[in-house]
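[job 4471] stage=fold_predict status=RUNNING
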Amino acid sequence: MVTHVPAEAHGDERGALLSFVEAQRGAIRRSVLGLTEEQAASRPSVSELSLSGLLKHVAEMELNWLRLAQQRPNERQRSEETWGDSFRLVGDETIPGTLAFWDTVAKETEDFIRSVPSLDDTFPLPPAPWFPADARVSMRWLMLHLVEEIARHAGHADVVRESLDGKGAFDLVAEEQGGDWGA
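[job 4471] inference complete, writing structure tokens
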């Protein structure tokens, strides 16, 4: 990560966790900076990953975990048959639309985390071969998992973007801020 995550107010664990999640979101958002829809959808390697697909995936992934924590149905729930569509824009989906959707999810995540009585509150993990049966995780675990998951895909986005035009994370931070990273 090439941006500084400001220190939270003393004892503000929720604020710290939200700041680290937001820093990782920023890395993925920056990966599409200045690209056309076609460039962002391209796959410059044998991987199926594209920048617009990664953007959509992390937005839907965050929504999925939020809905699990809220114990509400996910309006964008994927099945095994539709899983691949979570990694590519389809139909009339666009980068601006996906960014706007993710902004809504991010705001809802923040509001939810700030409203839960305790970060120690838990919710059940869904049945899956990779989760223990009847396991529960805390809201703190949720936030750390979002950092982990978004950061993993931010790393993918770094490699894909550099493969497209040679711009690395430092270049994109500087571009976003209107300068160059050497200044």
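[job 4471] summary: Residues 119 and 140 are 5 Å apart (CA to CA).
[job 4471] exit 0
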